Amino acid sequence: MFVIRLFRQDPIPFAHPHTPSNRCFCYSKLRDHYAFESPPSLSPKPPPPELKPRQNKPLKPRYKPPSSLDLADKKPKHSDLPFDFQYSYTETSRLVRPIGLREPKFSPFGPGRLDRKWTGVCAPAVDPKASSLESMEDPKLEEKRRVMWENIQGEPLTGAERKALVETCQKKKTKRQINLGRDGLTHNMLNDIYNHWKHAEAVRIKCLGVPTVDMKNVCTQLEEKTFGKIIHRHGGFLVLYRGRNYNPKKRPFIPLMLWRPHEPIYPRLIKTTIDGLSIDETKEMRKKGLAVPALTRLSKNGYYGSLVPMVRDAFLSCELVRIDCQGLEKSDYKKIGCKLRDLVPCILVTFEKEQIVVWRGKDYQPSESECFLSVRESFDDFDGNTKCVDSDDDEDDENFDNNCCDAGFQSAAKQNPKD
């Protein structure tokens, strides 16, 4: 029975090798009875190409990003600004000539980017080939600056217009502000001021640090270099107006400094012996000066606008004055001492132990009364005379920083209790 069942089963179908798998299987006797071979392909594959020997091709140069120092086929730029380009316009005195340079005269504007020659201190506007600062400034530049300032400013602002501009520069109205720090009014800061003037007629400037010892110079330099006008000042806060006829599209070209130049070497501030005194008297003067009670203590990056009047008042009762400068940078209190020497005037005794000790001298005479800028001031008079702002016009004072003055300057607060 088992054998019969095997013969009754269907035979296994033969699958042709060239038959697709999805087609049914069929029986083929070609391979069994005939010597059948499949025909060659009608489209034979081409033979693989022979590999050519590899040649030594030159390597592709690496990508080099564009640089502002690459001035191929570019002419040096020219600026019509009628003043010398310096790194700082408030911390560099042209009256003191340097005795040397700390580096070669590499222009901070980049090689060949400007048609003015860098002398190591500034880029003069008078003579591009100048190598020293001995020559006096061209009187034509002063006249040119005055004409440009008058053309841009136009008619003076009225009291209502000034008050409206000052109101828009309050902290609650706008956050736009330019900070003037220890380096003073730098050259690149001029470009920042013009950028702010694109969006508003006036800009708020906050002044702190060494330049605030001589705020009158800061205000003067700002107006001369930007051709604007200061319409309000409260402590270290200034409001700089651009002018009625100012056109942002016709702003002057200001070349930017690509790096900070090294400061030149100036004569020593502290001499071995004070003029008119012997060596022993100088040593005794320094010991006595360090033992004198400190007149005030300067805070770091504070407002020092009342320092010069304080030292002048102290010289009426004592010949030596000591100012505590603990926490300040060495370069900062040296610059402060240099400013006191020129503004008070006085004689520098020592900078030891982070102290500034000044001596009034043997034949001291109180200086005549000068026009110092008060804590709160307005610049409304077109002729340049300053007038104090009345209390009715000071509605914006509460929005200014009342803590800009140093804590040690109590005399300034007594002059105006609202400050």
UniProtKB/TrEMBL annotation:
Q: Tell me the SUPFAM superfamilies matching this sequence.
A: YhbY-like
Superkingdom assignment: Eukaryota
Keyword check for RNA-binding? yes
Which residue ranges have biased composition labelled Basic residues? 54-63
One GO BP on record is: Group II intron splicing
- Cellular component, GO annotation: ribonucleoprotein complex
Which keywords are on file for this protein? mRNA processing, mRNA splicing, Repeat, Ribonucleoprotein, RNA-binding, Transit peptide
Gene3D superfamilies, sorted: YhbY-like
Citing just one GO molecular function, the answer is:
RNA binding
Q: Outline the extent of the CRM domain.
A: 155-253, 275-371
Region Disordered: start and end of each range? 37-77
Ranges of biased composition (kind: Pro residues):
41-50
Q: What is this protein called?
A: CRS2-associated factor 1, mitochondrial
Q: Which organism is it from?
A: Cucurbita maxima
Which gene holds the coding sequence for this protein? LOC111479719
